[in-house]
Design goal:
DNA-binding; mainly alpha; Tetracycline Repressor, domain 2; homodimer
Chain lengths: 215, 215
DNA sequence: GTCTATAACCTGATAGAC
DNA sequence: GTCTATCAGGTTATAGAC
């Protein structure tokens, strides 16, 4: 908002003093911490430790822990919303449309694995207190609608679209959420977020979902 | 261990003073609390509040919060182990066997919805620090083996058994874990743990899984 | 076995100097 | 904008009476 011509000028290089940078760093560290521990378990001290500034800065920029949490959710959902808006779901045949949403969602989760964990914590501990409506609108309803359409057209089995949408989400995100646990199923040292592993999961999950509904 | 003949005699009815009863109550309350908040977020105070005894009893019987958590996990897994041992998986054709494990697992989760939440928290927060091995042996490996067999026999598609096992677990438990959030998809006041809703989920999930693998 | 009281510590949040 | 210091309240865990 300041129009001062000095705004863009790099300041002393000694100690970084940049509002946007600091704010961004806090958001990044907070996203990590909330993904690991949820709103309840997250520690502001731990967030600060992964930042190049002190704990006091969290309160300076975000007022309190809960507001910071909401800011993290907002940023994460902004990505989700813009991703889903790019898809022309209504104009695509159901089977293809379903693959589109699932793959779009999985691609995003692959690039931001924190999202699925945060969503899950939010659903489990906070009962969707903060993001309920937007989550339903961007995650479940699009899938539910496609399934309903697919049944009408005779492309999908006679399932309950709502239950199916929920189960599909589960099949998609579980891998990411539980990765630090299920990784023990694979050879020691296997990174479940490596490009190859992620690619395989996306393929497997999308195929699984499509096969599960197809008539 | 005490052989005293007075052991079974009911004591004064005034103030219940029964070791096993108290221990059981603490375990029950703890299971609820850990399912809601995870090891990290759980409050011993909250556990005590849902017991008819005080917080001090938790430490008297279980030493500390982490030991109590482990006791809860052990009890929950004992149920899982005994349930899976009752099934004759090796002697049953793959498709049927898979339906058997999935339904057995879902039935148990239906009756003890806490299990799925605890498993999930354990996987996410604690990275399976406490129950990793037994979880793999009782949850993932049986499914993985059936899938591998089903592919050999030509009953299932050519999938990766390991990835599929993980995705199947996700499709099964997500409904229970996220119930307080996804319930907003249904009419207000809908109880996702009601017998009808649970029955529908079990049917939908089992069908979905089978259809997703069948050739 | 169960309680009350409290110690010891942790964590969110703020004040005030720079 | 950033830091250090610190407070207030919450939380685990224990001591000791009954």
């Amino acid at each position: 908002m300041t129009n001062s011509p000095t705004t863009k000028k790099p300041r002393k290089e000694t100690s970084s003093r940049d509002a946007e940078l600091t704010k961004g760093r806090i958001l990044d560290a907070a996203e990590d911490e909330f993904a690991k521990a949820g709103l309840l378990g997250a520690r502001t001290e731990a967030i600060a430790a992964n930042t190049k500034v002190t704990k006091a800065m969290i309160y300076y920029y975000f007022e309190d822990k809960e507001k910071l949490y909401q800011a993290v959710l907002e940023r994460a959902f902004a990505r989700r919303v813009s991703a889903i808006q790019k898809l022309d779901l209504a104009g695509t045949p159901p089977a293809q449309a379903l693959r589109l949403v699932v793959e779009s969602f999985l691609d995003e989760v692959s690039q931001h694995p924190n999202l699925s964990a945060i969503l899950f914590y939010e659903a489990m501990q906070n009962k969707g207190r903060f993001y309920k409506d937007i989550a339903i609108a961007t995650l479940y309803e699009p899938i539910e609608n496609i399934i309903a359409r697919g049944i009408e057209v005779g492309a999908f089995r006679q399932v309950d679209p709502r239950h199916s949408a929920v189960n599909i989400m589960g099949a998609c995100v579980f891998y990411f959420c539980a990765r630090e646990n299920v990784k023990h199923l694979w050879e020691p040292g296997t990174d479940l977020l490596s490009p190859e592993m992620v690619k395989q999961h996306v393929t497997e999950a999308a195929d699984f979902v499509l096969a599960g509904l197809r008539k």
